[in-house]
Amino acid sequence: MATTSPPPEIEYPPKGRIEPVDDHTEIDQFWDSDTGATTAEYAITTLAACGFAALLVVVLKSEPIKELITGVISTALGLGS
Fold first, then answer.
1. What is the spatial distance between Cα 66 and Cα 76, in angstroms, rounded to a whole number?
2. pLDDT tens across 23-57, in order?
3. Where are the domains of the chain?
């Protein structure tokens, strides 16, 4: 199972000044194990959005809310008393 913790040979957090390097292989290897995180985050966000949408549908189908929305629309269109 891949984790996002740094390999033991990489000092984390680095102490002192970090010198620029031309070879980014070590950095690429460090972040390579984190490739599936974005997909998982999108999946959780999508599930949360679907749950919120389902809750909204249930609330909007209730009779008191229907009457409230109908009253607001009727008043806005000048059909209300």
1. 15
2. 777 677 766 665 566 778 888 999 999 999 999 99
3. 37-76
